[in-house]
Amino acid sequence: MAEVVAGAFLSSMFQFLFDKMDSPDIVAFFKAHKLDSVLVRKLKIAMITVTGLLDHAEEKQIVVPAVKKWLDELKDVAFEADDVLDEISYKALRLELEAESRIKKVSRLFSSHNQFEMAVNEKLDKILELVEYLIRQMKALGLTLREGIGDKPSSQRTPTSSIPDDASSICGREDDRKKIRESLLSDGHGVGVICIVGSGGMGKTTLAQLVYNDKKVHGHFDIKAWVYVSEEFNVFKITKDIFSQVSSKTSKANVLGELQEELKQELEGKITDTCGKISSEHGKVEDINEHQQKRKEPKKLLLILDDVWSDKDNEWKSLLKPLKFGAPRSKIVVTTRIESVKSAIHNNQMIIHLSHLLEKLCDGDCWSMLARYAFHNGISNSSHSDFEAIGKEIAKKCGGLPLAVKTIGGLLRSKRNVEEWKKISQSNMWNLLSDNIVPALKLSYHYLPSHLKQFCLLWNISKGL
């Protein structure tokens, strides 16, 4: 964990420096004295550019030592900038006190001011030069610009689907599976919601895939839909994805209200066409008659909303508007790592049938799962015992995370002797050997505001992790 302290600390540090530069005392002092405000502006712009490099540098420093040294140099420059801003703040306060006491002579004040202003301008110029030099090194280090401080990272993950990668390799989730299935098959009024909550890499998506493809569950619902949501909670896109899976028709709506009305009518079992007629689900067109309108039974829907991040009441209100018209005992399964998502759904008058918190796998289940991925059919069963002791150590280091087990297991599959397994077990970077694990396990960390990143890192260091 110590390797990523520099990147997280700098994110927080630069935000702190931006706030200082924009503080009323600093701004007023620059306006009232002969300080080069253009230098400060250039420095701020350069630092904004640097913040776009921090996420990438934070990841890359683990395997490229030169990037870590680059971050260390940047940290030194940030401290220098902080010292200069402190000097300005102190000078401003001192002048304020001197003005009140009127102790100093005017000539002496002017002499002191000129020396201070020249010294500060020189320091700012030097800091700007260093920051710009470090920015010029980004190409040589292979660093690329990303979004700035506090922004959500752009997701690099492949959208999920309803089909599990390898259901036969899943271990330790049978009790979870039964509990979710029982809730899906249970009776109830209206549309019920099941929340599967857990941290990144815990297996929320895999569990949802298992129950979605369960034979009993499949026969229980009239229509099913799987929608990958991720960080951007785009109500129009989500609604259109749902409609495309539950209807045989193609929606041409480009306004959310129209699209929601089409989905509502689909769930009710009828679709109104542009001529003011009703198309039944059997394709027969009938004239609309307010008193004799023929209504089909509402359709019982199973909807999976995978990897949800939004806990905003207004966004959920908009999304749920047409979904409430599903038949009684319809179910919506939401997978999320944010517990407050449940509250946002509940606040919109939805019934929460179950909020299921996924726990980490025990060491035994981790080893069983690791063995399935690592050995597969590549090594004979008679040879498994040679790898078992070291394999159990590796499994324990996966921390109960199924995604970590799966990733490391896939890596071990290509290693054919025990010594190679030992090297992986003893490596300080064993959990970062595959790029596949980085987007899933580090996304939660990157999504945090800068000050919380720093807090988490300091907490882990204090615990000796």
TrEMBL record:
Residues 153-163 have a biased composition (Polar residues). The keyword ATP-binding applies. Keywords: ATP-binding, Nucleotide-binding, Plant defense, Repeat. GO terms for biological process: defense response. It holds the Pfam family NB-ARC. The keyword Nucleotide-binding applies. InterPro entries: Apaf_helical (IPR042197), NB-ARC (IPR002182), P-loop_NTPase (IPR027417), Rx_N (IPR041118). Residues 10-101 form the Disease resistance N-terminal domain. Coiled coil: none annotated. Residues 150-169 are annotated as: Disordered. GO terms for molecular function: ADP binding; ATP binding. Residues 174-377 form the NB-ARC domain. This is NB-ARC domain-containing protein. It comes from Hevea brasiliensis (Para rubber tree). The lineage of its organism: Eukaryota, Viridiplantae, Streptophyta, Embryophyta, Tracheophyta.
